[in-house]
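It is worth pausing here to work through a concrete case rather than discussing structure prediction in the abstract. The textbook approach is simple: state the sequence, then state the predicted structure, then interpret. We follow exactly that order.
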Amino acid sequence: MTTVATTDLLRVRAALSVGAPPAEAFAAVTDPTLADAVHAVRLGRPLAAVARAAVDADTMAHAGPLLRALAVVERCGQGGVAAIDMALQAHQDAIADEQRMLAKTAQAAGTAKLLTVLPVAAWLLMVTLDRAARAFYATPLGWACAGATALLAAAGHRWARRLVTAAAGAAKTADPLARTAEPFDSTTLEAELSALVERLGVKAKDVYQPLRVAITGTTVSPGIFESLAVLVLCASGIVGLIAVAHN
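Step two, the predicted structure:
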């Protein structure tokens, strides 16, 4: 979210600290998008009225909190420097939050790439080292499973990129009081995949079996939902270790 520049906040604080009235202090702002507000204040319009107008003006909405704070100071006659200090602290906190969000987004993007590459790499390694696996993939069924693996990997990569992009956008407007997301465990995965099968109107085995082969490389494995949950857990742990080692 756009805010008043730190340099302008410091100019307002400096003016208030030497005893300038709030209106005169606001006139020290140099942001060109606030030129109309500064002009109105210099003509004698009350800061409270300018603050109300800023709420309805897209170009001045970011100055609303500053104008309201100065309007309160104008009426109370004190507290101006403290109000600007709080605004500066809020501005610094917003920058820190944005940096943390960028770091988390980069970590999520790395996890998404790893989740795409790791199953394919494990499958290629198994086919290379296991003679029985090579024999299986030489059959028509094996070719079909290999094709399903490639399609799932490509679809997973595209879906993961879209998911990370959407998550980064949602993080900017996230509500800390909103209900938390469902846990990424085998129970949740089973419910989500079952709902997907029902929506698609296909048989469960037509979805689960190719997915099982894509994940484990075989047609017989532990529970598919447990395998997916473990895969995500391991990938997240690896990315976390990489991040720790990098730092």
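Step three, interpretation. The chain has two domains: 6-78, 100-246. Residues 100-246 form one domain.
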